[in-house]
Amino acid sequence: MEPKTMFEKIWKDHVVRAMPNEATVLYIDTHLIHEVTTPQAFEGLRLAGRAVRHPEFTFATMDHNVPTTDRSLPIKDQIAVKQMETLAKNCEEFDITLYDIDSPEQGIVHVIGPELGITQPGKTICCGDSHTSTHGALGAFALGIGTSEVEHVLATQCLLYDKPETFEIRVDGKLPSGVTAKDIILSIIRRIGTDGGTGTVIEYTGSTISGLSIEERMTVCNMSIEAGARAGLIAPDDETYEYLANRQFSPQGQDFDKAVEIWRELPTDEGAAYDKSLHIDAQSLAPQVTWGTNPAMGADVTDVIPNPEEITTDDAKRATEGALAYMGLTPGTKITDVDIDKVFIGSCTNSRISDLRAAADIAKGRKVAETVNALVVPGSASVKRQAEAEGLDEIFRAAGFEWREAGCSMCLGMNPDILMPQQRCASTSNRNFEGRQGKGGRTHLVSPQMAAAAAIAGHFVDVREWESN
Amino acid sequence: MEAFKKHTGIAAPLNRINVDTDQIIPKQFLKGIERTGFENYLFYDWRFLDSGAPDPEFVLNAPRYQSASILVAGANFGCGSSREHAPWALQQYGFKAIVASSFADIFRGNSFKNGLLPVTLPADIVADIIAQIEAQEGYALTIDLESQTVTRPNGTLHAFDIGEFQKQCLLNGLDEIGWTLQFEADISAYESRRGI
Predict the structure, then answer these.
(1) How much is the pTM?
(2) What is the DSSP letter of A133?
(3) ipTM of the complex model
(4) Angstrom distances, CA of residue A147 to CA of A22, A144, A361, B22
(5) Which chain B residues contact residue A322 at CB under 8 A?
(6) Please, what are the domains in chain B?
(7) Mind telling me how many Å the CA of A195 is from chain B's nearest CA?
C-alpha cells in the first residue's frame, strides 16, 4: 500500500461523495457552536424548514460575549444578552446540548472540546471560529468555517470542501529553557508569513513537537490559522491517549482500548510525501514578542524594533511603516525598553491550566508594576476550578493580577474587557490586528511566562534571565 | 444566494496587504442576530473618525469612489477570523467583487457562499490596476465569470482561475444545502457503513 499522510487517512475516511468538477461532500463528526456565528445559521434553517441532522453531534457554549466579572450581576450589554438568549432558544428548539454561562462546563469552545473528550483523534470537527485548528493537537482534522457553512453542517452533517495540500513543519531538538510552544508557533509564522500556509493543512512533526504536552500542542495548532493554514495537525501518541482517558465523552473501558488501536493507525506512514516541507531547529528559537499588526510581525525578545527603510519590497515596507505608526514604536528601540499598560493572560491559545501554572510560577512572590493592569482569564470554568484548587488564584491576586471568570475576554474584546486607545498590552492571545483588543489598542503577542514577567517589570523582559536568577 | 454572471462597475483601490477581517468588520458589530445591516460598519475604524464623521483620508470616503462596486486590494485579503460578517458587510456596502493577488481561505469560501466574487490576479497586474485606478477617475472594470476574465477600460483582458463547482454555484445562485441534500442516500449509506 502506498504510504499516506495522517491528513490523507482522515480525509479518505470522511469522503461521502467525490466527483470530478464538484466539491467533495465531507462528513463532519463533531460540530461545535457558539453564540456569535450561529444565529443567522439557525434562522436559515427555520426559513427553509430544515432540521438539524444530528443534534447529538453538535455541542454549544457561550464564550465570545460573556462578561468575565461577577456572574451573579446582570449583564449590561443588552445586545450581547440577546445573542446569548438566541443561542439558548436555538439549542432548545433543535435539541442541542448547551453549556451556557452558568454551566460548570462553560468555557472557550476550543478549551472545552478537548477538556470534555469531545475532541478525539481521526475526527473531522467544524466550528464557526477560525481557531478551530486548535483541535488538531489531538490528531483531529478541525476546520474553522463561516456561518453559511455552519448552517450547511447543521442541516447535512457534511461540508462541501476542496481537498487542501499538506505542509509538514518539522521541529527538532531540545527547546531552550524559557522558550515555549507559543514561541515555536510565533517563530514559524514569522518565518512563513500570515499566508505561508494558505491552502494547506500543516502537520507539525519532529522530536520537539512530540515532546510537547497536549496543552502545548494545542497552542501550536491554535495559531495555524495565523499562518493562513486551513488546519493544523499533530500525530496522536501515548500522551494523547493518556490525556483522553476517562474524559466525559471519551470512549470508556474496552471501547477506549479499541479506539486507541484505531488511533494508532493514524500517524503518517514512513515515506509518505507532503506537498511542502519546512525544517526548524528548536535550539535556534528564543522568546518571541510581536511588534506589529499581524502575527508575523515579530522578533526575538533580544531584538530591536525593525527599520522599514531596510525592507526592500514596497508592500512590506508600507505595511511595516503603517504598523509602527499604529503601534507607536520607533525603529531601533530595544524590545525590552518597550513599556506596557495592560497584560492579558487568557484566550484559546494560552488559558489552560499549564499556561496558568507557568504564569503563576513567574508571578509568585512578586508584584505587578504600579503602571500595569493585569488580567488572568481562565479558558474554562473547569480550568478555573483546577487553578483555584492549586491556589494559583491566590498567587495571582497576591501579585496584583485580577482573577476572572472564563471566556474569550480581551482576546477580541467583544465583552467589556477592552483596551483604551493607545494602551499597550502584553497578551497571550493570537491576534495583534489593529483594534483587535479595542479601537486604537496596541497588542503584543507573547507567551504566558513573558506576559507575567512583563506585568511585573512594567516592560518586556527576557524571561530566560529571570529563570536563571 | 445571489447569482454572479457579469458585472461592470467603478473600481476602488485598497492598496494594502493582509487586510484582515477585524478591519473589514470590527468585533463590536458582530453581536447582532440578523444577516443584514452591516454596510455602515464596513472598515469602521478606518472609515470613521472618533467623532463618528467620515475620515476624509480613507480611500472609500473619496467622492470618486462613492459608487464603487469592485474593490481592488493587496495580497492575503480577508485573513484572520472566520466571521462571515466580512463578506456580508462588503456586499451590503455595494461591492460585487473583490480583486486581489491572493485571499485567505475562509474569507474566500465565505465570499463564494454569498455571491461576492473573489478574483485572484497576479500581484504585478493588481499593482498596475491600482495605479490606473488612482490615475483615472471613473475607472471601471468588467468581470465576466462565464469567460473568467477581467477587462480594463482600455480593453486589456486578464484571465482568472476559479474551480468549476464554485463557478457553477455562482452562475446559478445555487443553494448549496439543497445541492448536498440531493445526496441524502449517499450520506445515509456513509452513516450506516460507519454505524452512525
Answers:
(1) 0.97
(2) G
(3) 0.97
(4) 21, 10, 40, 16
(5) 16
(6) 6-194 (3.20.19.10)
(7) 6
